[in-house]
Every structure is written in C-alpha cells, then in structure tokens.
Amino acid sequence: MAKLKSRYVCQACGGVSSRWQGQCPDCAEWNTLAQEANVIGTPFAQKHDLQSGGRAVELVGLDAVVALPRRISSGVAEFDRAVGGGIVPGSVMLLAGDPGIGKSTLLLQVSARVAAAGGGVVYVSGEEAVDQVRLRALRLGLGGAPVRLASVTSVRDILTTLGSGEPPALLVIDSIQTMHSDLIEGAPGTVSQVRASAQELVRFAKDHGTALILVGHVTKDGSIAGPRVLEHMVDAVLNFEGERSHQYRILRAVKNRFGGTDEIGVFAMESEGLSEVPNPSALFLTQRGEPVSGTAVFPALEGTRPVLVEIQALTVRLASGATPRRSAVGWDSGRLAMILAVLEARCGLSFASAEVYLNVAGGYRLSDPAADIAVAAALISSLSERPVPPETVAFGEIALSGEVRPVAHGALRLKEAAKLGFSRAWVPAGLDGKGIELARFGNLRQLVDQLLGR
Ligand code: TYD
Ligand code: MG
How far apart are the CA of 270 and the centre of ligand 1, in A? Predict the structure, then answer.
C-alpha cells in the first residue's frame, strides 16, 4: 500500500484537509484542524479482498420487506416515547448531552429495566470503574438487575469479549469519547478515534442484532463534541437536555430513522435517579402551584432549542412620593423601562407610584424581544392582581407605538408549548397554530383589555 501523507482532520466536523489551515474549509470553524496519523489498516480492507471483485449480493424487491422491526420496550415509558415506541433491535442510538446532565443515570436505569425483562444487557463504562457503577446502581435501587458491567476503553477488548458469548440485546457504551480503537492512531476523543471506534461497534450491532446506545458528551456550544461525524452513522440521535441546577430533563430525538422527531420524554432528576414525568403540563403547574398574579410563561429559544421560561413580576405600591425602584434580573432594565413606558403611554396604566421587580425564574437570561408580551403580561397581571389564565404561554415583540409585532419561529414555539401541555397562547396577530388555542393581539391595549376582562 502506498504510504499516505499525514492529514489534518477538523475536530468539529470531521472534514479532512491535506495541509494545516487556520479555518476549516468545510465548516468554517477556526483552529479546529489537528494533524492525525494515518490509518494503519481498515477493518474493511482486512475483511474483504478488494482485488477479487467482491461478492455478489442478493437484490430484493421493496415488497419483500414485510415485517416491521419488533421493538424492545426499555421499561421507561418516557424513553420509549422519545425514541418512537421502544428500542429497535440492531439499531444504533447516540445519546448526547452536557456532562453531568444524567446520561449515565438514564442509561443505567434503562439497562436495568431491559435486563430485568429478560434481555441481555452489557454496560461498558469507559469513565467509571465497575465499583462506581455498581455503587450508583445500588443507590438507585437497581443493585439486583442482571446487567453485565465492564470498565474498558479498548474497542478490540469489548468486541472480543462480546464475540465469545451470546450477543446482548442491548449494549451501552458510556462514552464514545473514551473509546480507543487500535486500528487507528491518536488519542481517544479525537474525531478519527471516535469515528473508528463507533464504526467497529456499529458493525457489531448490525451483524448481531444488538441495539447499541453510544453516549456522547457535548461541548459548550451545543454540538456533540468532535463527532458530528457520528450523527450520520447512527439511526437516532437523542439529546438529553436541561439545566444542571434544575430538576427537569428533556429527552428529545433530533434524528430518528425509526420514528418521528417530535416526541419528547420528560424526567425529573431526584435523589433516587430519574423519575418519569408522564404529564409535563402537571410539571409546570405543580411548579407554579395555584395561579398567582404576576407570572407569565414565555417559550424561549436557545439556538433552535425551545425552553419554557417563567417570568415573574412584582409591583409594590408606595405611599410616599419617594422615587420607586425598578429592578430586573435576567432581563434588560432598559427594555423593562420601555415596556413600562408603553403600558403607561398607550394603555393608560400607571406604574408611577409603584416599585417594579422583574425576575426570570431559574436564573435564565433572556435577551429575546419576543418575550416583551410575556413581560408585559406579568407586569399587568401583578399590577391588577389578576393571574394570567393557567396553561397559557405568551410571546410577541412590543413596538413603541404599542403594536404587537410578529417574532421569529412562532410555529416552533407553539409546537413546543403544546407538546409540554400548554393549551393557550397569546400571540401576535396573523399567526396560525395547530393543537393550541390562540388569542391574537395586534396591539398591547388589546392584551390589557383581555387580562383586565374588559
Ligand atoms: P450522570 O448520570 O453521571 O451524568 P452524565 O453521565 O450525563 O455525565 O449524573 C450526574 C448528576 O446527576 C450528578 O451530578 C448527580 C445527579 N444525580 C442525582 O441527582 N440523583 C441520582 O440519583 C444520581 C445517580 C445522580
Ligand atoms: Mg456519565
């Protein structure tokens, strides 16, 4: 084989260049190209004699495929829901999420349920020792589940081990960034290592009908670290999302060859692991308790990711003529002043003798003007002591004229709110949406009338 020159692989997208460049020509990221050693030998080349012209494969008609793949229930309904109704044997899933969000916990729980139902499960941790995993299982009350554990990082060792026995129904690799394939040089976690390791494991899964779940950590900017290359190698990509300081976690399929991508699974992280939240609406309602005045829910977007955020306002009437305070946490104070001014000038409300406090719950920072309407609704609600009706989200930008203006991704926000159990939305005029009752406002005054029941 002719000796290949060294190559440079983008650690963000996997693009290959023959020389080093500051910017990746494929994905335009800066400083992501890293020199990587050459392929020592690909398993494909080892397995097949390319000189002989290959072997003839059987060509079948579309109509020959009659049986739908039978799915294995993970025993965790919210997980099944997110993946489209259960785990497909021989399928490969990537579970991506921030470090510490609960990926290992979720998969340990899924593994234990599948194993308890009689499916063989192998859980490979490249991050924790077997005893650590066992201790966690014990703490989760899963100590008795017949999951087989290993703490290994060598893909060859994993495949050798699995090849000697009955192939498991489910194989969990936690995480793919810790795996190492000796067919390729380079440290674990580099794009070429992640890709090579995944390729080997995927081939095993497809050959043996084993469902494979790969854990992938994501980087700060939200992409799956390095292996965006993995996304097209797997059948499904599941994102596990949430704020670490918050209890709630959302499992969302962003790609799924065997099901839709619009179902989500909702969990709460508790001291005994992840519990399922079958009715997400209840999640928000219990969190919010009885409807109180001064709160409104805004469907925010983080990148393309919708997150529902609660906005809280408190107005306190001052008896004396002292200058009232205005304080905003998680929201621009200049924009708060603007909304107050529009409410006074265009809608006849007076905040002049009231202190105003605005807070975005959970430590979120909002900079999206689409939240104007929700902020206004919280302020009006607090001032009038009339709660915003329950299960309502609100979004729309407010102009100085008092006009309510359309915002980006209205349909996406509505879809997310409906999915999370909200039944009503207060939106700018002209927006359409299915599955949720809309109240449309062309002007802020109409919103005030609605809230005050005028
Ligand atoms: P983990 O599953 O290790 O996250 P990941 O694999 O995504 O990195 O979970 C990390 C956090 O979850 C950990 O910081 C503590 C919390 N946790 C609980 O609150 N309750 C529990 O029962 C468990 C196991 C973890
Ligand atoms: Mg982990």
Answer: 9
**Is the Cβ–Cβ distance between 169 and 211 less than 8 Å?**
yes
Pick the CATH number of 283-452 from 1.20.1250.20, 3.30.70.100, 3.30.230.10, 3.40.190.10: 3.30.230.10
Q: Name the maximum alpha-carbon separation found in the chain.
A: 95
Ligand 1 pocket, residue 25 CB under 6 Å: no
**Can you tell me the distance from the alpha carbon of 281 to that of 423, in angstroms, rounded to the nearest whole number?**
9
Residue type, 247: Q
Assign domain 71-278 to a CATH class: alpha beta
The pTM for the full model equals 0.69
pLDDT in tens, 125-171: 999 999 999 999 999 999 889 999 999 999 999 999 998 889 999 99
Ligand nearest to the CA of 135: 1
Residue 105 CA, closest ligand 1 atom number: 2
**pLDDT tens-digit map of 377-423:** 999 999 999 999 988 999 999 999 999 999 999 998 998 888 878 89
